[in-house]
């Protein structure tokens, strides 16, 4: 699991990274390793927060592109 965690992190595949970390936390819970479980759960939360932040940025970029297109069309129509 450690190899998968490092690989997904290096490749930036956050959804798979979160799944590996979640599975790791669940396994550590079963083994009674509470401190390690808490660390893995913290990592899951951080990855999910990063995913959320990145999804907001993508939406903002899409909206910006749409407004740029609207402005170009509007200025083109104004010069008619």
What does this structure look like?
This protein is mainly alpha-helical. The protein has one domain. The chain is 91% helix and 0% strand. It is built from three helices and no strands. 9% of the residues are buried.
Seen as an oligomer or otherwise, the chain set is: single chain
DSSP helix count? 3
Structural domain tally: 1
Distance between the termini: 63 Å
What is this structure, in a nutshell?
This protein is an all-alpha fold. The chain has three helices and no strands. Helix 2 packs antiparallel against helix 3.
Keywords:
80 residues
Give the SSE map:
Layout: H1 2-11, H2 14-31, H3 34-78
Helix pairs in contact: 1-2, 2-3
